Amino acid sequence: VGFTRNPSDGSDALYIDYLANAQGEDVVAGRRNALGVEQLQRRAPGAYQELAAHKEVLEKTFGDMQDFEFTIEDGKLYMLQTRSGKRTPLAALRIAHDLVADGIIAAATAVERLAGLDLEDIEYRDLIVPEGVQPIAQAVSAGTGVAVGAAVFDPARVKALKRDTPVLLLRENAETADVAAIAEADALITARGARTSHAAVVARHLGKVCLVGCSALQIDVSGRSCRLGEATIREGDVLSIDGASGCIYAGRLSIRRAKPTALLSEIESWAQRPHSGVDEKSEKGGPGSKNLEPSRRGAAAQQRNFNHRDKKMKPR
């Protein structure tokens, strides 16, 4: 499973999870840790280069960042299906800006796509880590940002504990059965699971900090405590987590906040431009002519086959 851009921070780089000798369901189910881009480059360099070439084709064809599935069999790459990818608000801002800069969509389209977001709430956040303080564990980043709150291990207790303090949900697996609790929590930390698992995708879309594949996490069967490396954490103990680095710290750390002012200013200038309501790239027959809104994209894309080097992809 892959994204043509990073769905957490919007950076322009392939974001890939894969498993050898497995099916796509094994990746998205949230019960297994996945391998990433570096391992794919090393194990199947030819397939990786072909996949990288598809990135531009996908975005120009569908006019948006794509969430796609693929398989490699006997060294041969098969592209299976694609759709517009879920993303954090910060990623949505950067991706919309960069797609305009890349000539894939028009500025008016970018403004329209961002209309549902509260741009004033979008910010960069990082932890202020005092000198000498070390993380007690580290995981794989699946959703950027930072979170400070009480550790909770039972999804059924998240809502009640949240009345008094922000909560961080710690689980063995990244499973969709926990989605209601994830929506209430400030962050999700799992011992197993891939960045592209269904639960991680939902957490990211909800703007939650998400860490997966934390091998140091061992949750007690009582559901009231866990081990994080050498540390014992009980329900209610405060943790601070950094979604960018994957670091987990014991105790409460301070948070530094900053606005993406340059991006916000440029988007605001686009919003103030007069326009006819027609995508200017569509009028020129450019990439914008394939830039369909999400509600229309699925139906229209059903009529297209994505053909590239004798491979076919269909929207899902």
State the main characteristics.
single chain; 316 residues; alpha+beta; eight-stranded mixed sheet; six-stranded mixed sheet; 19 strands; 27% strand; globular
Description:
With 316 residues, the chain is an alpha+beta fold. 29% of the residues lie in helices and 27% in strands. It is built from eleven helices and 19 strands. The protein has an eight-stranded mixed sheet with strand order 6-16-15-8-9-10-11-7. Strands 2-1-3-4-19-18 form a six-stranded mixed sheet. α7 (179-184) links the parallel β9 (167-171) and β10 (187-190). The two termini are 13 Å apart. Mean pLDDT is 82; it is low at 276-316.
Give the SSE map:
Elements: E1 2-3, E2 15-16, H1 24-28, H2 37-43, H3 45-62, E3 66-73, E4 76-84, H4 89-101, H5 107-113, E5 124-128, E6 137-138, E7 140-143, E8 146-152, H6 158-161, E9 167-171, H7 179-184, E10 187-190, H8 198-205, E11 209-212, E12 217-219, E13 225-228, E14 231-234, E15 238-242, E16 247-250, E17 254-258, H9 261-271, H10 280-284, H11 294-301, E18 306-308, E19 311-315
Parallel strand pairs: 4-19, 8-9, 9-10, 10-11
Antiparallel strand pairs: 1-2, 1-3, 3-4, 5-17, 6-16, 7-11, 8-15, 12-13, 13-14, 15-16, 18-19
